[in-house]
Write a structure and sequence with these properties.
Two copies of one chain form a homodimer. The first copy, chain A, is mainly α and about 240 residues long. Chain A contains nine helices and no strands. In chain A, helix 1 packs across helix 4, helix 4 crosses helix 5 and helix 5 packs across helix 9. The interface between A and B is large, with 43 and 43 residues. Chain B binds a DNA duplex (30 and 30 nucleotides) through helix 1 and helix 3.
DNA sequence: GACTCTATCAACACTGTGTCGAGTAAGTCA
DNA sequence: TGACTTACTCGACACAGTGTTGATAGAGTC
């Protein structure tokens, strides 16, 4: 388990198009493929429309009809591909989260080479970069948690993954004597990961108050290092 | 400006019943009062119904009809008292936030007597206690920010108030030599206040991951003290 | 040429919001 | 006392959005 790895996103039933569900699951390699070509296009068109619209306005102002129109189909046809608007957003968020979890070798290298400061910075930078590119999607995912149990579960799973990674790093640093004992490692990890979530979200959406985009990582890392090592300049 | 004071909540137009708006604003002391008695009852009944239902289920599962029925009136009559469901929730959240901001003498006393640890603890305890009593209202207020600009502004104002207070305390502690220099005080305050918001919300709603209710304050205060003073046991 | 499977949509049923206009009841004033 | 005002109430409507049904068309298969 390495730092900031993505906890292997679930293939959720709710987002699978009805077309694929169970029906003759096994055979037909190409015939199916050919028949599905148009269908795959539509599905992609819906997802692309949603991504585009989400950068223009909030999820609550986007209707199923908007998504259908954007994909060049009627509203009932939309329901052939997705069971609901929420399912579209969950699919998109799933992918974003998967993207954000990538590139861990880079982090491991940074941890080994540059010590904890560099390691944490690279980890947080990667995460932040992935989300910063699509603030609309981040916002939609967050908004969705207000009404959608599945969205809450997905995000809880992501958070648990990060917390587990950070807990492991804190324990390792304490074991090798680099960090002093203190709060239970998991408690500290939870508080720090939650701080990051909230602070980065606020910055991403330019809330008030929020940290400036070009300073947010410096501030967060400073708090992390002080909370974990007792100083902002721990030795490698 | 003292720590954790409530930044004087605005009287928002949107929540004022139509009945009061402008129309013959000045005269008639008692006649008006008598005539309004029943109306005040209704208004209170709506607010009480909303508070009750919000502890039972989320805002998205409560309709205007539910509120009207609960208050013993028809749906159109509801609109005589409030312009929308959101306005009801904003009124309730307003009051909760005002409650949470009270009792500052206690905090000032604690800051003076017990030093920063006690001061911060009393401040955070008061806040947390006010919110913990009505998690449904907290959740509704939070959920509302997804769709309602006014809810976002109200919360932004509350956060700004806390950040301003914490910034002032950090600067004071640095000025008297109790805290070392470091990050810009406001940046640090933003990060810490955001951490608290997120962590306390998660604990309140028993999210996963979240800190245990009986440990959340200990954990947060430890991080605060380390981030501000460089140690979890600053001298008074 | 019947059969199947994917894909499509008009029309419908339903839920929830917010408005309109017609009331009633109680108080005010000429 | 009786016309007038004000607070309050709600049936009926218009509208927006969701999700379903059932009929149908085309492409591929046997």
């Amino acid at each position: 388990m390495s730092i900031f790895s993505t906890p292997c996103i679930v293939k959720r039933m709710a987002v699978a198009p009805k077309a694929q569900s169970a029906s003759t699951a096994a055979p037909k390699g190409r015939g199916r493929r050919g028949a599905r070509a148009s269908g795959d296009d539509r599905e992609r068109a819906i997802l692309e429309t949603a991504e585009r619209l989400l950068e223009e306005r909030p999820l609550s102002e986007i209707s199923v009809d908007d998504l259908a129109k954007g994909a060049g189909i009627s509203r009932p046809t939309f329901y052939f591909y997705f069971p609901s608007k929420d399912a579209v957003v969950l699919t998109i968020v799933d992918r974003l989260v998967a993207d954000a979890g990538g590139s861990r070798e880079e982090i491991i290298t940074a941890l080994a080479d540059g010590g904890p400061q560099a390691g944490f910075r690279v980890g947080l930078e990667n995460l932040y970069a992935a989300f910063r590119a699509r603030p609309g999607v981040v916002r939609a995912g967050t908004d969705l948690r207000a009404t959608n149990q599945e969205a809450r579960e997905l995000w809880a799973q992501v958070m648990e993954g990060w917390v587990a990674d950070v807990t492991a790093v804190i324990e390792a640093e304490r074991a090798r004597g680099a960090a002093p004992p203190g709060l239970p490692a998991r408690d500290l990890a939870i508080a720090l990961v939650q701080m990051n979530e909230r602070a980065q979200y606020a910055t991403l959406l330019d809330e008030s108050p929020s940290l400036e985009a070009d300073r947010v990582l410096d501030v967060l890392i400073d708090v992390w290092l002080r909370a974990i090592y007792g100083t902002a300049e721990p030795k490698p």
